[in-house]
Design brief:
Layout: E1 4-5, H1 8-20, E2 32-37, H2 43-56, E3 61-65, H3 73-76, H4 84-89, H5 94-102, E4 112-113, E5 131-132, E6 138-143, E7 155-160, H6 163-169, H7 178-188, H8 190-193, E8 196-199, E9 207-208
Parallel strand pairs: 2-6, 2-7, 3-6, 7-8
Antiparallel strand pairs: 1-9, 4-5, 8-9
């Protein structure tokens, strides 16, 4: 696998060009893009930059973060606050993502998407209004452990950190999640299954597979 060094602005523009040309294989009028990676990889920053770059190309884009679709604390913390297997298996409400985001963007969907369901800090409903996406608008879904759920992504970008870099850049309070990311690498091999791999060990100098 050949990795090519690139700057973050150049990567954003290259990805935006590719997304602009996306045609969903299932006939959906809404391209669905995943930006997958651990919180330390800062997927949200890339996704926000992509949304802005797409809008300058005349393509509306909606960013949705998986943290807005975590299950209620009573469910995700059932086995304690620091259980990596629960983090891996239970935190993300995949059913809600299907119902509120991916289902409406299926070929026969309405395009009416809920950007967030629950505030992860307050554990309360965000009461976010639904957003009507016109045909051609792009969904940018970012977050951790996104691959392997059968989500119908038209393009999946994985921001990879080596185990050492992930440990170094993960705050001490969140280091209990590290076994979940090791399990993700071992079971789902996101570096191989994603369409585009971005190595982000050095936050100033990424490298990618074009």
């Amino acid at each position: 696998m050949q990795l090519n060094p690139i700057s973050w602005p150049a990567l954003t523009e290259a990805l935006a060009d590719r997304i602009t040309d996306l045609t969903p294989a299932d006939g959906s009028p809404w391209p669905r893009v995943a930006v997958d990676g651990a919180p330390a990889a800062r997927t949200g920053e890339l996704t926000e930059a992509l949304a802005a770059a797409l809008r300058t190309r005349g393509r509306p884009a909606l960013r949705v973060s998986t943290t807005g679709f975590w299950r209620a604390a009573s469910l995700r913390l059932e086995h304690g606050r620091h259980d990596p297997d629960s983090y891996y298996d239970l935190w993300l409400d995949t059913g809600a993502l299907w119902r509120e985001v991916l289902g409406p963007l299926s070929p026969d969907g309405t395009g009416r998407v809920l950007p967030s369901l629950r505030d992860p800090a307050t554990d309360r409903a965000t009461r976010a209004p639904y957003t009507e996406l016109p045909p051609g608008a792009v969904l940018l879904l970012d977050g951790s452990l996104l691959l392997g759920h059968g989500f119908p992504f038209d393009l999946a970008v994985h921001l990879r950190l080596s185990p050492a870099a992930l440990a170094r850049r993960t705050p001490e309070a969140d280091r209990w999640t590290l076994p979940a990311f090791a399990r993700y690498d071992n079971e789902l091999h996101p570096a191989q299954t994603a369409d585009i791999l971005v190595h982000a060990d050095d936050p100033r100098r990424p490298a990618w597979t074009t």
